[in-house]
Write a structure and sequence with these properties.
Elements lengths: L1 E6 L2 E6 L11 E4 L4 E5 L25 E4 L1 H14 L6 E4 L11 H9 L4 E6 L6 H10 L3 E4 L6 H7 L7 H14 L3 E4 L2 E2 L5 H14 L11 E2 L17 H15 L9 H4 L16 E9 L5 E6 L5 E5 L3 H4 L3 E8 L6 E4 L2
Parallel strand pairs: 2-5, 4-6, 6-7, 7-8, 8-9, 10-11, 14-16
Antiparallel strand pairs: 1-2, 3-4, 12-13, 12-15, 13-14, 15-16
Helix pairs in contact: 1-2, 2-3
The structure holds iron/sulfur cluster.
Iron/sulfur cluster binds next to loops.
Length: about 350
């Protein structure tokens, strides 16, 4: 690992040798289905007011940003696909940043297409351009999951936390994607009750008019959720799931389009398959080597003795544990994302 720059005061750490399983923010996440989440970068130019992962220039909790070297990432994708007996239908490039800001995104898409049948990518659209879209199409990108939360320029600047953000430009690029390329457009607004209810309706009308959803469902509306280290929209209460489904049902009735993602799973071809083997279980005590500062403050990243996975150790400072071997107790193991505390 080396520090290759700074982003609003935070070091950008280039990941070239670390294991790429075990961390929520970078590498590969397998949730036991035939979709692999591939996370090349934590960087994002926006600071959405609802961002559940506190990304962008206005982050308050992040200590470092991570960018994964492309060939290292591809090598690990191959390794995880093999461990799942090749049962992977889609690589979804997503993350706690905006993948479109990854400088090697075109090459990454092209290389992933040689490994898995389908490659999709999430973005809020700020780093997109028509030129980039053309290159992504040539690289074989199958689907663009575009989060666009309003078509109103002023509200978009507020929601995306960036005065320079131009949603009209992003909408034009989206129209180009839907009408002029083989890439499918799947529009994924975040519903923030009382803030963009009507905007979601305008987005559905617009998405249907431009031809979103050529092969896959056109929309995947997301629920606004409050997370401990995420940003909270002032004056807005997180909706309950009941409220969310009621909102979705009302829109489905009005527009005659499926918006409930539980009924879209077949159309995406998603199903449960063999998981990547779990290395540790919650409660295990393991010896790990601390290798770099963590993604959030008061965290460090460590590796196990075999360098098979990374473990986030929380409640510690990097300056105190730099390059040391420490015994930790695993407190979280879900989906092979390992979080630990120093063992007593
Ligand atoms: S919601 Fe997405 S685009 Fe917005 S700040 Fe967070 S990571 Fe960036």
């Amino acid at each position: 690992m080396s520090i290759v720059g700074r982003f609003h005061g935070r070091p950008i750490i280039l990941v070239e040798t670390l294991p790429l399983v075990g961390h929520i923010a970078f590498g590969i996440i397998d949730r036991g289905t035939n979709v692999l989440q591939v996370r090349p970068t934590t960087l994002c130019p926006l600071s959405c007011v609802f961002c559940s992962v506190d990304a962008g220039p206005r982050s308050r909790f992040r200590a470092s940003e991570f960018v994964v070297e492309r060939s290292h990432l591809v090598k690990w994708v191959k390794h995880v696909v093999r461990a799942k007996d090749g049962e992977v239908v889609e690589a979804l490039i997503d993350g706690v940043g905006d993948p479109a800001s990854y400088s090697d995104i075109v090459e990454l898409v092209a290389e992933l297409k040689r490994i898995v049948p389908r490659v999709a990518m999430e973005t809020h659209g700020a780093p997109l351009s028509v030129e980039l879209v053309k290159k992504l199409e040539s690289a074989g990108l199958d689907r663009l999951n575009l989060s666009i939360d309003t078509l109103d320029p002023e509200k978009a600047r507020y929601l995306q936390g960036a005065e320079w953000f131009d949603v009209t430009r992003v909408a034009k690029i989206a129209e180009y994607v839907a009408r002029e390329t083989s890439i499918d457009l799947h529009i994924t607004p975040v519903w923030i009750p009382g803030v963009n209810d009507e905007d979601i309706e305008r987005i559905i009308e617009w998405g249907l008019a431009i031809g979103a959803g050529k092969r896959f469902p056109p929309f995947g509306i997301q629920k606004y959720e409050v997370h401990r280290f995420g940003r909270k929209v002032p004056g807005v209460r997180e909706p309950s799931w009941r409220e969310f489904w009621r909102f979705i049902e009302r829109l489905e009735a009005r527009y005659g389009v499926v918006l409930d993602y539980r009924r879209m799973i077949d159309r995406f071809g998603f199903r449960r398959v063999r998981r990547y083997p779990r290395r540790f279980r919650a409660g295990d005590e393991v010896l790990v080597e601390v290798v770099c500062p963590g993604w959030l403050k008061n965290e460090v990243i460590a590796v196990d003795r075999e360098w098979s996975c990374v473990v986030t150790v929380v409640g510690v400072r990097y300056e105190e544990l730099r390059r040391r071997s420490v015994k930790v107790r695993i407190i979280r193991d879900k989906d092979c994302i390992y979080v630990a505390k120093p063992a007593r």
